Amino acid sequence: MKSFLFTIMQLTSEKKRTMSTSVFSCFATLLVFGFSSLASAKTHHLHWEVSYMFASPDCQEKLVMAINGQFPGPTIHAKAGDTVVVELKNSLPTEGVVIHWHGIKQIGTPWADGTALISQCPIKPDETFVYKFQADKAGTYFYHGHYGMQRAAGLYGLLIVDVKEGEKEKFKYDGEINMLLSDWYHQDIYTQMVGLSSNPFRWIGEPQNHKMTIVEADGNYVDPFTVDDMDIYSGDSYSALITTDQHVSSNHWISVGVRGRQPKTPPALAILSYLNNSQSQLELPKATPPTTPLWNDYTRSKSFSYKILAAKGTPKPPKKADRLIQLLNTQNRIDGFIKWSLNNVSMVLPSTPYLGSLRYSLKGAFDQKKPRDRFGANYNVMKPPINPNTTTGSNLYEIKFNSTVDIILQNANALSENVSEIHPWHLHGHDFWVLGYGEGLFRKKDVSRFNVENAPLRNTLVIFPYGWTAIRFVADNPGVWAFHCHIEPHLHMGMGVVLAEGIELVKEIPKDAISCGKTANMLMNQHG
Amino acid sequence: MKSFLFTIMQLTSEKKRTMSTSVFSCFATLLVFGFSSLASAKTHHLHWEVSYMFASPDCQEKLVMAINGQFPGPTIHAKAGDTVVVELKNSLPTEGVVIHWHGIKQIGTPWADGTALISQCPIKPDETFVYKFQADKAGTYFYHGHYGMQRAAGLYGLLIVDVKEGEKEKFKYDGEINMLLSDWYHQDIYTQMVGLSSNPFRWIGEPQNHKMTIVEADGNYVDPFTVDDMDIYSGDSYSALITTDQHVSSNHWISVGVRGRQPKTPPALAILSYLNNSQSQLELPKATPPTTPLWNDYTRSKSFSYKILAAKGTPKPPKKADRLIQLLNTQNRIDGFIKWSLNNVSMVLPSTPYLGSLRYSLKGAFDQKKPRDRFGANYNVMKPPINPNTTTGSNLYEIKFNSTVDIILQNANALSENVSEIHPWHLHGHDFWVLGYGEGLFRKKDVSRFNVENAPLRNTLVIFPYGWTAIRFVADNPGVWAFHCHIEPHLHMGMGVVLAEGIELVKEIPKDAISCGKTANMLMNQHG
Known about the structure:
The structure is a homodimer of 528-residue chains. The first copy, chain A, is mainly beta and 528 residues long. Chain A has a domain at 323-523: Cupredoxins -  blue copper proteins (Immunoglobulin-like). Chain A has five helices and 29 strands. Chain A has helices at residues 189-193, 298-306, 354-359, 488-492, 517-525; strands at residues 3-10, 21-24, 43-55, 62-67, 76-79, 83-90, 99-102, 128-134, 139-145, 156-162, 175-181, 212-217, 220-227, 237-243, 251-256, 268-273, 323-334, 337-342, 345-347, 391-393, 396-399, 404-410, 423-427, 432-439, 457-458, 460-463, 467-474, 479-485, 496-501. In chain A, the strands form seven sheets. Chain A has a six-stranded mixed sheet, with no helix packed on it. A six-stranded mixed sheet of chain A has the order 18-17-22-27-24-25, with no helix packed on it. In chain A, a hairpin with a 2-residue loop joins strand 12 and strand 13. Chain A is globular. The model of chain A is unreliable at 13-38 and 195-207 (pLDDT under 50). The interface between A and B is large, with 36 and 36 residues.
């Protein structure tokens, strides 16, 4: 009988999913027992090439974006404090590319965050960009494309950061099983980009008599709690301990179902086997796969989210915030096309990345209209918008350096009556504290209910239908950081904002990151 | 009874074709009768935006690359000597784009030829590039994407250049019918790019009692000849006169069949109607559509090509050439992948466009190894290559300015026994004279058979299976010019060379054309 660390990451979004799991079985023991040697940080130098490849993960051949001929991309293993250098060559024939290192804070290297047109120019075909950053904290992370909808094309992989040499995990286990969940579309991403609606998914694992003890969320320890199944949204990552206390020769189903929208696809299935058999030798479990909970059982979903609280020793949030930003999530229309908006502005990105245009104070590089911190106080979140017409804008929030900011993500009714979707949001460059959740419209008085005692640190949050979620963070990382719904088509439809902080403290940005748009013009017109 | 100018242009390439014709019926009278006013050149200023759009040309919806929401793109009408300015905005989400103006010589504006990585940098998403060029000569031209396989994605349209104001056509007609032939794939171009084999097509029009008198080829008058059907290869354009001498209410089939490879798709059909009916009012012709000739009836194909001779008054070629380049067309392998090669080198393009790197003498911008003017004298063109292994290279030929060059395109057996395909080649920046054709291996003595009396001027040529075709041109246009098989997948597989001439005479290249790769670095490092 052994115990294993079971890590689960989510990248899903969409309704035409036909297959949801990629299972990696890496049984290398991770536990490091109290060595007294000094921790010495290492540099991992990787040469990666992004190109197209045929793959048939669900027995239907399709083009995928692969890294070094692998799909999903190679797993990065590092220790906290190590430096990761990825020389990324773009071998796509006509498209730009970037890679975002999801969960890595990029302290001092905001240009390496991998957000196209926010932190850097897209890497041009046949060119190479060097991502160099520190794996700042142990945790279960992943990386993925962040340009157009290249994530859905298969451009993603795992980034596992272990504790420093000589440090101990807070919990013991004998091995590690990583599971990366992702949607799989038969439609190509160019077709998808033209107009699919989308959906969050729920990862439901009923491990057949295996209880899961959740110990980590988004790279932060949480107060352990034990469940039979879990909710996991796009952008989330969790670690759970499981104990192999069943019969040694038995195999067990893992079942993954859709959440938040009536599924049109069957659950995805994986097998948990105690034996290190090859796939061909694997026998199907005798029991039928477990049924996943109803897609609209929100009570169950909320109950899971509410259980996530900080582990002892987790830093506490500042007692008060300097600024409160309320972001109303609505579905709207522009010229008949459906968009997603924040405070009635749908985000579009400029052709010059913000990091460069702000750092060098370039004029006219983006729409200068400042977005609002509030929406109408009388907005009825329970009904479709009275005025569904929206506009586009930069949604760029300039945040005072080192200030403490609260953001309330307010959900509302979509365009159709009685529809309000789940949205998983992801903040770049930061962890934040999840201060609380509420039903209906957020009110000033709700601040008194904020959990400032054991609020969990996360980089993703979820807003439930018709509800709100409150977060707090300290703007202490000079750079420009995306904050957006992690459902890729929602982001593509404008569901995001951009936060700029301490721009004057950003050191010289590598030329390769800004050799497009107005920053390229600036560089070309520079005279010694 | 009226006579019409029937112009036909070809853009096809591939075997998964399901539909081949786009018919434009523009019955505006073109004839201009001897005005004595002075010709005054006009500037046509166009604002174009390339974006994706759904279209169902064969009743199956698919994504296409459209211009201003139109597929095919808008038709440009200009007169000889006019200036065309196209401000092209790239609204594709992640891909670069360029447009090549097929048949326009770009004298003095080599950066406007629209060949990605040869004449310019790909235009980045959300950026705009200005194509400004002179419509130097009356003719039937077209434009199309020239980056990756974007042409197959639907990025093309017509460019009709009429004679100058006050000038007469050499022939009279009452109206004009333009027909642009193109392949239509259900597979997306990204999937295609990974590895389709391909094929030239033959346009066969049997106009049901309508004889066609061919009067123009690739923008040059030819000695008129009359046929029932014609061969047309990718990149070709022809004008034919037809006379509406049948019953006024009858409709007539136009039938288009595949040529050079056993077709797997039915012939494409169009209807020639004398009445200006809307499509819904159109009645199908009573007769069955005409059967197109056998796909492998090469005798018939050759007979058509051999009939194309220069019209009286066409400039004659110089009597002798200063240089003879022989290019052996072979199918080869690199690491098992099938390629097309010239003199056993398969062309790859660098990330810095040649025009900029040559003009500014940048080091290391491309593979400097010079390609050869000859291949082994004992090469057996009737058999598969003895050594099928090939390498990649720049295939850049530096040509002495104002020199006269002969190029022999030598066909050969492909990788499989008893297979030799038809290849339609296209030269940018030039017209050339087609001096002759031959069977088997070209020999020095064949020079004596060259037609220097009434050789037709063209910008496309065809090589027949196991045969050769000889062309002559004067290198009098400063720039870097692609010369390649016009079958898009063949070009993608390396079937092309690049000709550089008079580079030192190229005036200052617009920055937008060279703001990538090493030329961008050069611009960024320039100190006043």
